[in-house]
Amino acid sequence: MTRAEISLSVNGEPVEVTFAPYKTLLELLREDLALTGTKHGCELGECGACAVLIDGEPQLSCLLLALECAGRSVETVEGMAESWQSGAGLHPLQAAFADLGAAQCGYCTPGILLTAKALLAHEPEPSRERIQEAISGNLCRCTGYQQIVEAIEEGARRMADESHR
Amino acid sequence: MKVIGKPRRRVDGRAKVTGLTRFADDVVLPRMLHMKMLRSPHPHALIESIDVSRAAAYAGVHLVLTGKDFPASFGILPITQDEYPLAPEHVRYIGDPVAAVVARDEQTAGEALELIEVRYQPLDTISSPEEALAKPEPRLHAYSERGNIHRLQAFQFGDADAAIAQSDYVFEDLFFYEGNTHLPIEQHACVAALDADGKLALWSSTQVPHYVHRALARVLQMPASQIRVIATPNGGGFGGKCDVCNHEMVAGKAAMMLGRPVKICLTREEVFYMHRGRHPVLMKFRTGVSKDGKLTGMHLQTLVDGGAYGSYGVASTFYTGALQTVTYELPRYQFEAARVFTNKPPCGPKRGHGTPQPRFGQEIQLDKIAERLGKDPAELRLGMLVKPNSLTANWLKIGSIGLEQCIRAVVERSGWKQRFRKMGPGRGLGLACGSYLCGAGLPIYWNKMPQSGVQMLLDRSGQITVFCGATEIGQGSDDVLAAIVAEVLGVDPQEVRCITGDTGITPVDLGSYSSRVTVMMGNAAIQAAEKLKAMLAEAAAEELEVVPDRLQFANGHVSFDARSLTFAEAVVLAEVKFGTLGAVGSYSPPRAPGRYKGAGVGPSPAYSYSACVVEAEVDAATGWIRIPKIWIAHDIGRTINPVLARGQVEGSVYMGLSEALMEEQVFRRLPAKLSRALVHKFPSLLEYKSITSLDMPEVDTVLIEDPDPNCPFGAKEVGQGPLLPVMPAVANAIYDAVGVRIDELPITPDKVMRALELKAAGKPARVGPEHFPAVPYPAPIVVPPPWEGGDGKEAKRDDAAAVV
Fold first, then answer.
1. Domains in chain B: how many in total?
2. Can you spell out the DSSP letters for B340-369?
3. Distance from the CA of A87 to the CA of which of B15, B27, B90, B649 falls in 20 to 30 A?
4. 203-222 in B: which are within 8 Å (CB) of A?
5. Full domain range(s) for residue B254
6. Within this chain, do residues B646 and B603 fall inside the same structural domain, yes or no?
7. Do B385 and B490 have their domain in common?
8. Closest approach of chain B CAs to the CA of A161, in angstroms?
9. DSSP character at residue B696
10. Is position B147 within any domain?
């Protein structure tokens, strides 16, 4: 089978990769780039577990062909901490999720973290309703969502505090 | 206490927010191959022939397996070893696996599946319990008790019918609880591989690695000592990963045959077919009540739709009756149950295992009783609570019970007294309670060994390593383990390294089910940690010249007043004095007092209790239901980490509410021109409705602490119990809002509309089952309750005759 080749940016680093052309971005990330932090729950665009940021906007990586991502900038959960100059630390959203019980099994967590990050990039102080709306495409079976919403609020506060410091 | 009860980041929190938690499908090994399974498209058929020659010859295919490669059956319960990894001749539901292909990649394996030619001889389908009762043939399983009735159970704890007949009031109600599924966001996956010494290793998203280990030994006909099962952290379980799965057995066999790692990850559709979820249950409650609001007797009948295989079903069926006695005083109780086989995906344990269904019926019936007696539903319940340290009619031993505080908390916080029956049209409040096990008293295979083991190592670096077979499924079992050890040794939980759920290197723990882990693992962990603490204290006492008893273990130090050692310094002294430092702990539950056949289901070291108030708004024009707020109080005994405990309560409320309003695993028949097969109505996350962040109401959570002496630091379960009161509280709130009774789940707008139309027409404003079919329940096992002179054993035949 002919293999496809593209260049793209993944977590801020330039990447050149060859792969089977039928692959989705989800498969490219997990299977060809060993970025297994991005999860799958249905591979049909129903659960939101595979959400990543494409040029800063949340998209379901299971519904995107990898070929469509040539030249684009992809951010996964593995890149979150570095995107906040935290190095080995955590992005404030990650820290708030860990502290406030927003991750139980942790399987839907990467997709929700990135969705929340994109929301806060547009609206640094979103209302509770806006947060609920933003993550309504991400299914979580563990938490009942309340601690996730609270962690996003707390993450927003911590981001503001750390930015002002 | 320094650790227990303090809100903390869980010990595995960092891994979960960085994407570093390694789930089963994240396991990638060199030379790994990929597997797909071919599943029956018929709900019921005999396999006439399977031709795999084209698939086997397909480029990139390494192995094709069929039923004839697997002579041995398996099953989670010793009495129902009724499944084969691949069906040899008889398929019993759409999705029953018949063949497997192992290939260089998933794509190739999928293409090769289509080249396998299977000739089926379709059989008539048993689609419902009524059909199963009426049609003994075609029979799904030769081992069933009779025809398509898998199992019949009947017990009489005192003459309940006589007590009911003599009561001031008699209530008879039918309820139906539709089946639903776990829907963990992680699909089941596993990787099987031979390790360097030729032993088999299986990484799997399972809640029960020990049981998978045993099943692999049986199915692959190899010594259990040659097998290692590693439970990867589960991306949600809820009971859906409690069973031993076909794909685990087949991947294990393929890895053994090929000498290469083999991975399979199920598709979402396959997860729906594998199921093992909530059993649909039809229930008939006959309950006697005295004028002053006491229960005099209850006669409960259940009819349980098991689907195509045994799974945990015999236990699930017992659980539809076993816990009716642990909440409210019930002097006499009769329970009859039947589980039938149907050609649908097998049902099994889901959060609450067999008890949410009768809880739904019992708590709605109590609401009806309160109304008829003119009593407040909260007061009625407060007047009939089981006493602490008592025995129930079916010989369960109750320890602590914090339910009175739970009821008072939700009544107070919801403004119940000011608002119930006074909120005006379309708005209402409903109240219900629940109780659950803190671990099943018996293991699923009979033995007298510990049900949980913990092993600990300390070394001179000060590091603390704890090994336990318990399985992290998101509930926080690793955090509980670290917290308990940290509390005993006076260190930060983040100092404790937990190695769990690996049958090759961790002591046996039976797994994450029946809310058993905190109590059983926790008690074993305290025992192990206390042994090491005593050694550290003895060594440190010599150095500090004090008696060991006076030493404090706190904040990473061992000290007496100003004399102090760091924890690591104390370890060095102990290592000098005693040599290499290690200790083990074990836990077995106390022996239950019941001695009759069937007494094994229901006993537990402790019972948790919950009370819930739900507020509902119902639009009378559309039947649309909105839930603005839920108040819940849970008797947790003692909270280990309030962040996680609250998460378990809210997650339970969420799942209960989702079951109450929308979740249903239902089937439909295809039209005649399309085979009339019985198919899953919607095996996808989009069509199988569940609550999203937009639908979820505010939840007010209260944790009631009434420490139980059988539990570690008094801590009871919290993962399942808080689900139980939610569904009936929703139904009761809808009645308060619009005056209609919906006696079946889920409660959807169409059912509300139908009931409102009946009400408008002056008919009984109720939607629910109308008829309970004739079930050939056997003569009951008669066991006199404790207060009628029983000794926990079945009455001898003469006594039984006298009682009847």
1. 3
2. E--SSPPP---TTTTSHHHHHHHHHHHHHH
3. B27
4. none
5. 18-123+185-236+241-274
6. yes
7. no
8. 20
9. P
10. no
CA distances from B30 to A63, B105, B112, B232, B682 (A): 28, 13, 23, 18, 37
DSSP state of B734: H
CATH of the domain at B564: 3.30.365.10
Q: Assess contact for B336 and B154: CB atoms under 8 A.
A: yes
How many Å is the maximal CA-CA distance in chain A?
54
User: How close does chain A come to B99, measured CA to CA in Å?
Assistant: 23
Torsion angle of alpha carbons B112, B114, B120, B126, nearest 10°?
110
Pairing of strands B149-157, B781-782: parallel
Same domain (yes/no): B268, B283 = no
What confidence tens digit (pLDDT) does each residue in A96-151 have? 999 999 999 999 999 999 999 999 999 999 999 999 999 999 999 999 999 999 99
Beta strands in A11-150 (DSSP E): 13-19, 51-54, 57-60, 73-75
- In a domain? residue B792: no
Residue of chain B whose alpha carbon sits nearest to that of A79: B18
Q: Is residue B10 situated within a structural domain?
A: no
Domain ranges (residues) in chain A: 4-79, 85-164
Question: Quick one: B169 and B192 in the same domain?
Answer: no
CB contact (8 A) between residue A44 and residue B643: no
Min distance B182 CA to chain A CA atoms (Å): 9
Question: How many Å apart are CA B211 and CA B75, to the nearest integer?
Answer: 10
Residue B642 resides in a domain: yes
Task: Mark yes or no for CB contact B183/A37 under 8 Å.
Answer: no
Contacts of B675 (CB under 8 A, 6+ apart): B42, B122
Q: Are residues B482 and B427 in the same domain?
A: no
The b/e string for B624-641 (b: 16+ C-beta within 10 A; e otherwise) is ebebeebbbbbbbbbbbb
Helix (H, G, I), strand (E, B) or coil at B47: strand
Two tokens, residue B47: 């396999």
Range A4-79: architecture per CATH: Roll (3.10)
Q: How far is CA B239 from CA A119, A145, B208, B276, B349, in A?
A: 34, 20, 10, 8, 5
User: Rounded CA gap, A66 and B341, in Å?
Assistant: 46
- My answer on whether B174 and B318 are in the same domain is yes
* Residues in B 167-196 with any Cβ partner in A closer than 8 A: 182-187
Whether residue B335 is found in the same domain as residue B270: no
Whether A4-79 and A85-164 share one fold: the answer is no
pLDDT 10s digits, B752-792: 999 999 999 999 999 999 999 999 999 999 999 999 998 99
- The reported pTM is 0.97
Q: What is the CATH number of domain A85-164?
A: 1.10.150.120
Nearby residues of B698 by Cβ (< 8 Å), 6 or more positions away: A146, B628, B629, B630
Residue A72 Cα, gap to closest chain B Cα (Å):
22
Which residues, 6+ apart, have CB-to-CB distance to B191 below 8 Å?
Answer: B24, B27, B29, B32, B202, B203, B204, B251, B261, B262, B263
Q: What is the pLDDT of residue B539?
A: 98
In the Cβ-directed half-sphere of B46, how many Cα atoms lie within 13 Å? 7
Is B644 at the interface with chain A, CB within 8 A? yes
Mutate to test the interface with B, among A107, A114, A131, A147 (most CBs of B within 10 A): A107
Examine the domain organization and report whether B198 and B176 are in the same domain: no
Q: What is the mean pLDDT of chain B?
A: 97
Q: Quick one: closest CA in B to A105, which residue?
A: B474
Exposed / middle / buried, residue B738 (Cβ in 10 Å: 0-12, 13-18, 19+): buried
